[in-house]
Protein backbone atom coordinates (compact mmCIF):
# COMPACT_ATOMS: atom_id res chain seq x y z
CA UNK A 1 0.00 0.00 0.00
CA UNK A 2 1.37 3.43 -0.95
CA UNK A 3 0.95 6.32 1.46
CA UNK A 4 -2.83 6.86 1.51
CA UNK A 5 -4.72 10.11 1.14
CA UNK A 6 -7.24 10.87 3.91
CA UNK A 7 -10.56 12.50 2.90
CA UNK A 8 -13.27 13.50 5.37
CA UNK A 9 -16.95 13.44 4.37
CA UNK A 10 -16.47 11.32 1.22
CA UNK A 11 -19.88 9.61 1.20
CA UNK A 12 -21.56 11.96 -1.27
CA UNK A 13 -21.26 14.83 -3.75
CA UNK A 14 -17.87 16.57 -3.95
CA UNK A 15 -16.14 14.31 -1.40
CA UNK A 16 -17.35 11.22 -3.27
CA UNK A 17 -16.16 12.67 -6.58
CA UNK A 18 -12.75 13.38 -5.05
CA UNK A 19 -12.56 9.80 -3.71
CA UNK A 20 -13.30 8.21 -7.10
CA UNK A 21 -10.93 10.64 -8.85
CA UNK A 22 -8.02 9.77 -6.57
CA UNK A 23 -8.77 6.03 -6.75
CA UNK A 24 -8.71 6.26 -10.55
CA UNK A 25 -5.28 7.92 -10.26
CA UNK A 26 -4.06 4.93 -8.24
CA UNK A 27 -3.97 6.51 -4.80
CA UNK A 28 -4.80 4.50 -1.69
CA UNK A 29 -7.56 6.14 0.35
CA UNK A 30 -8.72 6.34 3.93
CA UNK A 31 -12.01 8.21 4.16
CA UNK A 32 -14.65 9.17 6.69
CA UNK A 33 -18.39 9.01 6.14
CA UNK A 34 -21.23 9.83 8.50
CA UNK A 35 -24.25 8.27 6.78
CA UNK A 36 -24.10 4.73 5.34
CA UNK A 37 -24.65 5.82 1.72
CA UNK A 38 -24.84 3.00 -0.84
CA UNK A 39 -21.72 4.50 -2.43
CA UNK A 40 -19.61 3.52 0.59
CA UNK A 41 -19.82 -0.17 -0.34
CA UNK A 42 -18.54 0.61 -3.85
CA UNK A 43 -15.64 2.64 -2.44
CA UNK A 44 -14.74 -0.30 -0.19
CA UNK A 45 -14.88 -2.67 -3.17
CA UNK A 46 -12.42 -0.34 -4.91
CA UNK A 47 -10.04 -0.70 -1.96
CA UNK A 48 -10.76 2.41 0.08
CA UNK A 49 -10.65 2.13 3.86
CA UNK A 50 -13.96 3.67 4.94
CA UNK A 51 -14.39 4.76 8.55
CA UNK A 52 -17.78 5.77 9.92
CA UNK A 53 -17.45 8.99 11.94
CA UNK A 54 -19.94 11.60 13.14
CA UNK A 55 -17.89 14.47 14.49
CA UNK A 56 -20.28 15.44 17.29
CA UNK A 57 -17.80 15.90 20.17
CA UNK A 58 -14.12 15.72 21.13
CA UNK A 59 -14.33 11.98 21.84
CA UNK A 60 -15.62 11.18 18.36
CA UNK A 61 -12.82 13.19 16.77
CA UNK A 62 -10.20 11.50 18.95
CA UNK A 63 -11.67 8.09 18.14
CA UNK A 64 -11.45 8.82 14.41
CA UNK A 65 -7.83 9.96 14.74
CA UNK A 66 -6.96 6.75 16.62
CA UNK A 67 -8.59 4.71 13.85
CA UNK A 68 -6.50 6.53 11.21
CA UNK A 69 -3.34 5.63 13.12
CA UNK A 70 -4.44 2.00 13.40
CA UNK A 71 -4.73 1.81 9.60
CA UNK A 72 -1.59 3.66 8.52
CA UNK A 73 1.78 4.99 9.68
CA UNK A 74 2.10 7.46 6.80
CA UNK A 75 -0.06 9.79 4.69
CA UNK A 76 0.32 11.32 1.19
CA UNK A 77 -2.30 13.97 1.98
CA UNK A 78 -5.29 15.09 3.98
CA UNK A 79 -8.38 16.64 2.36
CA UNK A 80 -10.76 18.32 4.80
CA UNK A 81 -14.08 18.20 2.96
CA UNK A 82 -16.64 17.26 5.66
CA UNK A 83 -19.03 20.12 6.17
CA UNK A 84 -22.49 21.15 7.30
CA UNK A 85 -24.05 24.09 5.43
CA UNK A 86 -26.36 25.09 8.24
CA UNK A 87 -27.95 28.44 8.97
CA UNK A 88 -29.47 30.58 11.75
CA UNK A 89 -32.95 30.40 10.13
CA UNK A 90 -33.05 26.62 10.72
CA UNK A 91 -31.41 26.72 14.16
CA UNK A 92 -32.91 29.02 16.83
CA UNK A 93 -30.35 27.58 19.28
CA UNK A 94 -27.59 29.86 17.97
CA UNK A 95 -25.07 28.74 20.61
CA UNK A 96 -25.34 25.10 19.49
CA UNK A 97 -25.23 26.08 15.81
CA UNK A 98 -22.07 28.10 16.41
CA UNK A 99 -20.44 25.21 18.28
CA UNK A 100 -21.45 22.72 15.58
CA UNK A 101 -20.12 24.91 12.74
CA UNK A 102 -16.82 25.57 14.51
CA UNK A 103 -16.42 21.91 15.36
CA UNK A 104 -16.91 20.47 11.87
CA UNK A 105 -15.15 23.24 9.92
CA UNK A 106 -12.35 24.29 12.30
CA UNK A 107 -11.83 21.96 15.29
CA UNK A 108 -11.89 18.72 13.23
CA UNK A 109 -9.28 19.95 10.70
CA UNK A 110 -7.22 21.53 13.52
CA UNK A 111 -7.07 18.35 15.63
CA UNK A 112 -6.53 16.01 12.65
CA UNK A 113 -3.74 18.21 11.22
CA UNK A 114 -1.91 18.38 14.57
CA UNK A 115 -2.36 14.67 15.33
CA UNK A 116 -1.42 13.47 11.84
CA UNK A 117 1.28 15.96 10.78
CA UNK A 118 4.06 13.45 11.51
CA UNK A 119 2.35 10.88 9.26
CA UNK A 120 2.78 13.41 6.43
CA UNK A 121 6.56 13.53 6.93
CA UNK A 122 7.43 9.81 6.94
CA UNK A 123 8.41 9.80 3.25
CA UNK A 124 10.82 12.40 1.77
CA UNK A 125 8.25 13.38 -0.87
CA UNK A 126 6.19 16.58 -0.64
CA UNK A 127 2.76 15.97 0.92
CA UNK A 128 -0.42 18.04 1.09
CA UNK A 129 -3.19 19.28 3.29
CA UNK A 130 -6.17 20.79 1.44
CA UNK A 131 -8.94 22.69 3.22
CA UNK A 132 -12.31 23.05 1.46
CA UNK A 133 -13.43 26.52 2.57
CA UNK A 134 -15.95 28.79 0.80
CA UNK A 135 -16.21 32.01 -1.22
CA UNK A 136 -18.07 33.58 1.73
CA UNK A 137 -14.79 33.67 3.68
CA UNK A 138 -14.14 36.89 1.68
CA UNK A 139 -17.59 38.45 2.10
CA UNK A 140 -19.33 36.97 5.13
CA UNK A 141 -22.83 35.61 4.76
CA UNK A 142 -25.80 37.24 6.56
CA UNK A 143 -27.84 34.03 6.20
CA UNK A 144 -25.03 31.67 7.26
CA UNK A 145 -23.15 33.72 9.87
CA UNK A 146 -21.72 30.87 11.98
CA UNK A 147 -21.00 28.78 8.88
CA UNK A 148 -19.04 31.60 7.22
CA UNK A 149 -17.15 32.40 10.45
CA UNK A 150 -16.11 28.77 10.84
CA UNK A 151 -14.93 28.57 7.23
CA UNK A 152 -12.95 31.79 7.84
CA UNK A 153 -11.27 30.05 10.77
CA UNK A 154 -10.36 27.17 8.48
CA UNK A 155 -9.03 29.66 5.91
CA UNK A 156 -6.82 31.26 8.56
CA UNK A 157 -5.46 27.87 9.65
CA UNK A 158 -4.35 27.31 6.05
CA UNK A 159 -1.72 30.01 6.60
CA UNK A 160 -0.75 28.83 10.10
CA UNK A 161 -0.29 25.20 9.10
CA UNK A 162 1.52 26.17 5.89
CA UNK A 163 4.14 28.01 7.97
CA UNK A 164 4.28 25.33 10.65
CA UNK A 165 4.65 22.32 8.33
CA UNK A 166 6.85 23.71 5.51
CA UNK A 167 8.81 22.72 3.56
CA UNK A 168 7.69 19.11 3.31
CA UNK A 169 3.97 19.59 3.78
CA UNK A 170 2.11 22.06 1.54
CA UNK A 171 -1.13 23.46 2.99
CA UNK A 172 -3.70 25.16 0.73
CA UNK A 173 -7.40 25.93 0.56
CA UNK A 174 -9.94 25.67 -2.19
CA UNK A 175 -12.70 28.30 -1.79
CA UNK A 176 -15.69 27.38 -3.96
CA UNK A 177 -18.86 29.27 -4.61
CA UNK A 178 -21.69 27.32 -6.26
CA UNK A 179 -20.35 23.95 -7.41
CA UNK A 180 -23.39 21.66 -7.19
CA UNK A 181 -26.91 22.41 -6.07
CA UNK A 182 -28.67 20.36 -3.42
CA UNK A 183 -31.56 18.04 -4.26
CA UNK A 184 -34.09 20.26 -2.46
CA UNK A 185 -33.03 23.51 -4.18
CA UNK A 186 -36.05 24.91 -6.08
CA UNK A 187 -35.94 26.53 -9.53
CA UNK A 188 -36.28 30.06 -8.13
CA UNK A 189 -33.28 29.56 -5.82
CA UNK A 190 -31.28 27.98 -8.65
CA UNK A 191 -31.99 30.86 -11.06
CA UNK A 192 -31.10 33.46 -8.40
CA UNK A 193 -27.89 31.64 -7.46
CA UNK A 194 -26.71 31.16 -11.04
CA UNK A 195 -27.00 34.93 -11.55
CA UNK A 196 -24.57 35.57 -8.67
CA UNK A 197 -21.49 34.67 -10.75
CA UNK A 198 -20.17 35.98 -14.07
CA UNK A 199 -20.15 32.46 -15.56
CA UNK A 200 -23.75 31.76 -14.48
CA UNK A 201 -23.34 27.96 -14.46
CA UNK A 202 -23.48 25.07 -12.01
CA UNK A 203 -19.97 23.76 -12.85
CA UNK A 204 -20.01 20.43 -11.02
CA UNK A 205 -17.30 18.66 -9.00
CA UNK A 206 -14.88 18.57 -11.95
CA UNK A 207 -13.82 22.16 -11.14
CA UNK A 208 -12.73 21.03 -7.67
CA UNK A 209 -10.94 17.98 -9.10
CA UNK A 210 -8.98 20.16 -11.56
CA UNK A 211 -7.93 22.47 -8.72
CA UNK A 212 -6.97 19.54 -6.50
CA UNK A 213 -4.81 18.03 -9.26
CA UNK A 214 -2.96 21.33 -9.58
CA UNK A 215 -2.29 21.59 -5.85
CA UNK A 216 -1.22 17.95 -5.42
CA UNK A 217 1.16 18.18 -8.41
CA UNK A 218 2.74 21.49 -7.34
CA UNK A 219 6.04 21.58 -5.43
CA UNK A 220 5.79 25.33 -4.75
CA UNK A 221 2.24 26.50 -3.98
CA UNK A 222 1.53 26.66 -0.26
CA UNK A 223 -0.37 28.87 2.18
CA UNK A 224 -2.69 29.93 -0.60
CA UNK A 225 -6.42 29.84 -1.35
CA UNK A 226 -7.61 28.99 -4.85
CA UNK A 227 -10.99 30.59 -5.49
CA UNK A 228 -13.29 28.47 -7.65
CA UNK A 229 -16.23 30.85 -7.91
CA UNK A 230 -17.08 31.75 -11.53
CA UNK A 231 -16.04 35.37 -11.06
CA UNK A 232 -18.65 35.94 -8.37
CA UNK A 233 -16.43 38.57 -6.73
CA UNK A 234 -16.87 40.81 -9.80
CA UNK A 235 -20.68 40.64 -10.00
N1 LIG B 1 -21.64 22.18 -2.95
C1 LIG B 1 -21.25 23.44 -3.19
O1 LIG B 1 -21.73 24.10 -4.16
C2 LIG B 1 -20.22 24.09 -2.31
C3 LIG B 1 -19.44 23.34 -1.44
N2 LIG B 1 -18.50 23.96 -0.65
C4 LIG B 1 -17.66 23.16 0.24
O2 LIG B 1 -17.14 22.04 -0.45
C5 LIG B 1 -17.15 20.87 0.41
C6 LIG B 1 -17.98 19.77 -0.24
O3 LIG B 1 -19.29 20.30 -0.50
P1 LIG B 1 -20.54 19.29 -0.60
O4 LIG B 1 -20.13 18.07 -1.33
O5 LIG B 1 -21.71 20.08 -1.07
O6 LIG B 1 -20.71 18.89 0.93
P2 LIG B 1 -21.98 18.18 1.66
O7 LIG B 1 -22.91 19.24 2.16
O8 LIG B 1 -22.47 17.13 0.77
O9 LIG B 1 -21.23 17.57 2.95
C7 LIG B 1 -20.08 16.78 2.79
C8 LIG B 1 -20.11 15.67 3.78
O10 LIG B 1 -19.89 16.17 5.11
C9 LIG B 1 -20.36 15.17 5.98
N3 LIG B 1 -20.68 15.68 7.31
C10 LIG B 1 -21.51 16.67 7.64
N4 LIG B 1 -21.58 16.82 8.97
C11 LIG B 1 -20.76 15.88 9.51
C12 LIG B 1 -20.40 15.50 10.84
N5 LIG B 1 -20.93 16.11 11.91
N6 LIG B 1 -19.52 14.48 11.01
C13 LIG B 1 -19.00 13.84 9.93
N7 LIG B 1 -19.30 14.15 8.65
C14 LIG B 1 -20.17 15.15 8.45
C15 LIG B 1 -21.62 14.61 5.32
O11 LIG B 1 -21.66 13.23 5.64
P3 LIG B 1 -22.88 12.25 5.35
O12 LIG B 1 -23.43 12.60 4.01
O13 LIG B 1 -22.23 10.91 5.38
O14 LIG B 1 -23.89 12.45 6.46
C16 LIG B 1 -21.41 14.90 3.84
O15 LIG B 1 -21.29 13.75 3.05
C17 LIG B 1 -17.70 21.34 1.74
O16 LIG B 1 -16.63 21.65 2.64
C18 LIG B 1 -18.48 22.60 1.38
O17 LIG B 1 -18.60 23.51 2.48
C19 LIG B 1 -18.33 25.32 -0.65
C20 LIG B 1 -19.09 26.11 -1.49
C21 LIG B 1 -20.05 25.54 -2.42
N1 LIG C 1 -21.35 21.65 3.12
C1 LIG C 1 -21.85 22.41 2.15
N2 LIG C 1 -21.42 23.68 2.02
C2 LIG C 1 -21.98 24.47 1.05
C3 LIG C 1 -22.95 23.98 0.17
C4 LIG C 1 -23.37 22.62 0.34
O1 LIG C 1 -24.24 22.12 -0.41
N3 LIG C 1 -22.80 21.89 1.32
N4 LIG C 1 -23.49 24.75 -0.80
C5 LIG C 1 -23.17 26.04 -0.93
C6 LIG C 1 -23.85 26.84 -2.01
O2 LIG C 1 -23.67 26.20 -3.26
C7 LIG C 1 -23.37 28.27 -2.16
O3 LIG C 1 -22.00 28.26 -2.49
C8 LIG C 1 -24.11 28.96 -3.30
O4 LIG C 1 -25.43 29.18 -2.94
C9 LIG C 1 -22.20 26.69 -0.01
N5 LIG C 1 -21.60 25.75 0.93
Automatic annotation (TrEMBL):
GO terms for molecular function: dihydrofolate reductase activity. One of its GO terms (biological process) is one-carbon metabolic process. Transmembrane segments: none annotated. The keyword Oxidoreductase applies. Its EC number is 1.5.1.3, 1.5.1.50. The keyword Zinc does not apply. It catalyses: (6S)-5,6,7,8-tetrahydrofolate + NADP(+) = 7,8-dihydrofolate + NADPH + H(+); 7,8-dihydromonapterin + NADPH + H(+) = 5,6,7,8-tetrahydromonapterin + NADP(+). Keywords: NADP, One-carbon metabolism, Oxidoreductase. It holds the Pfam family adh_short_C2. Belongs to the short-chain dehydrogenases/reductases (SDR) family. FolM subfamily. Catalyzes the reduction of dihydromonapterin to tetrahydromonapterin. Also has lower activity with dihydrofolate. This is Dihydromonapterin reductase.
